[in-house]
Design goal:
about 140 residues, GMP Synthetase, Chain A, domain 3, 2 domains, ribonucleoprotein, KH_dom-like_a/b
């Protein structure tokens, strides 16, 4: 069993939210995967913890709302939204739809497992002692 499957609906929500016909599901799953892959490849060191994709309502079918939860929103937004536009342009080209990109700050990055793991991996890549990295992660 997948632990995320057990948590859905209780303490966790879906990362993608949309309602479509059965025939459209495989294409949208692939599109969601490509969107997440593009965002993660664009910003490897930007501490992204979660990417939510919403396609809601039939009348706004050509609009996708993407919410990025990050510990460092200033890096993703960039100066005058410059970096944000660099992310948004390839997404629009990939999906052929209007993209609404929201960037939210994670309040406690030390309590988010993904961000703690990214931080530990970065420290280990910088050749820090593994015992020290472990102790620092536990203390936070």
């Amino acid at each position: 069993t997948n632990p995320n499957g057990l948590r859905l609906g209780i303490i966790r929500t879906w990362d993608s939210q949309w309602c479509v016909n059965d025939k459209e599901i495989p294409a949208l799953i692939k599109e969601d995967f490509l969107i997440r892959q593009l965002i993660n490849n664009f910003s490897k060191r930007n501490s992204i913890s979660q990417i939510e994709i919403q396609r809601l309502k039939e009348k706004t079918k050509n609009r996708i709302t993407i919410t990025i939860h990050t510990a460092k929103p200033g890096i993703i937004i960039g100066k005058d939204g410059e970096t944000r536009n660099k992310i948004q342009a390839p997404l629009k080209k990939l999906t052929q739809k209007d993209i609404n990109l929201n960037i939210l700050e994670v309040k406690n990055p030390d309590k988010t497992a993904v961000l703690v793991a990214q931080n530990m991996a970065e420290q280990l890549e910088n050749r820090m002692k593994f015992r020290r990295v472990q102790k620092m992660a536990i203390q936070k």
